[in-house]
């Protein structure tokens, strides 16, 4: 697996040639460091660049009139933040970092040039469809799952997505967010988030060491959360290789 998270991710959307990989690697050469909790682009802005997360953690969010924030997506390494700005022209949500991150700013003209490559454009379509599938999964969790299962489902998803780009191993990954951030993701108060995390920890489902998360038994957590990774589409089409070594993914994907 390449160390470039974008290439690692898009390999699950299509079969890339060596030239394709080199082109994507070049796209990611120049990064800028953005500190934690900084706005990358705000709702209403007319963006000139597409943003790509290479390290760290970002989010899509909407601010309500009362100042409350709703986080509608987590942006992990390898994720485009606003791939279709050339079509939309204006942001209908904000994008910010949750942790210190390295971001690539890609001119719209560069993205438009990539669309001329059929393999890369297929991979970009795949990425967009996975984003939509993830949004649907979040809506189902928010509307129908109890808080502890909703939280467990989120941790299963994070493990799968981070394994896909080589940033999780043996059920362990970094997740540098606050309980307030988790509340904004799950639509819950900080007090309720604290109680939910405590329950998962006491049940031995999810363990925490600072900002490091450990899932001792991914299969058990997936069964508890009713997690099915189908919506992430993490199976390479040309090899049928499952993305992650986790037993629960191998059995369910």
TrEMBL record:
<dbReference type="InterPro" id="IPR000595">
    <property type="entry name" value="cNMP-bd_dom"/>
</dbReference>
<dbReference type="InterPro" id="IPR036388">
    <property type="entry name" value="WH-like_DNA-bd_sf"/>
</dbReference>
<keyword id="KW-0805">Transcription regulation</keyword>
<keyword id="KW-0238">DNA-binding</keyword>
<dbReference type="Pfam" id="PF13545">
    <property type="entry name" value="HTH_Crp_2"/>
</dbReference>
<dbReference type="InterPro" id="IPR014710">
    <property type="entry name" value="RmlC-like_jellyroll"/>
</dbReference>
<dbReference type="InterPro" id="IPR018490">
    <property type="entry name" value="cNMP-bd_dom_sf"/>
</dbReference>
<protein>
    <submittedName>
        <fullName>cAMP-binding domain of CRP or a regulatory subunit of cAMP-dependent protein kinases</fullName>
    </submittedName>
</protein>
<dbReference type="InterPro" id="IPR012318">
    <property type="entry name" value="HTH_CRP"/>
</dbReference>
<dbReference type="Pfam" id="PF00027">
    <property type="entry name" value="cNMP_binding"/>
</dbReference>
<keyword id="KW-0804">Transcription</keyword>
<dbReference type="InterPro" id="IPR036390">
    <property type="entry name" value="WH_DNA-bd_sf"/>
</dbReference>
<feature type="domain" description="HTH crp-type">
    <location>
        <begin position="145"/>
        <end position="219"/>
    </location>
</feature>
């Amino acid at each position: 697996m390449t160390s470039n998270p974008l290439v690692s991710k898009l390999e699950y959307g299509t079969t890339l040639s060596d030239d394709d990989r080199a082109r994507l690697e070049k796209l990611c050469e120049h990064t800028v460091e953005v500190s934690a909790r900084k706005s990358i682009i705000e709702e209403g802005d007319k963006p000139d660049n597409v943003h790509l997360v290479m390290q760290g953690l970002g989010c899509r969010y909407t601010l309500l009139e009362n100042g409350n924030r709703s986080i509608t997506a987590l942006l992990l390494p390898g994720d485009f933040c606003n791939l279709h700005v050339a079509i939309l022209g204006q942001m209908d949500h904000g994008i910010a970092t949750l942790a210190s991150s390295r971001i690539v700013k890609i001119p719209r003209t560069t993205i438009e040039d990539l669309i001329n490559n059929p393999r890369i454009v297929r991979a970009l379509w795949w990425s967009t469809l996975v984003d939509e599938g993830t949004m649907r999964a979040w809506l189902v969790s928010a509307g129908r799952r109890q808080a502890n299962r909703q939280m467990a489902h989120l941790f299963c998803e994070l493990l799968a997505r981070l394994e896909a780009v080589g940033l999780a191993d043996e059920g362990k990954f970094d997740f540098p967010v606050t309980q307030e951030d988790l509340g904004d993701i799950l639509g819950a108060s900080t007090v309720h988030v604290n109680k939910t995390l405590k329950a998962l920890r006491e049940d031995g489902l999810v363990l925490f060491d600072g900002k490091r998360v450990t899932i001792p038994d991914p299969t058990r957590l997936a069964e508890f959360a009713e997690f099915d990774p189908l919506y992430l589409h993490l199976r390479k089409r040309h090899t049928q290789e499952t993305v992650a070594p986790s037993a629960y993914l191998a059995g369910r994907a």
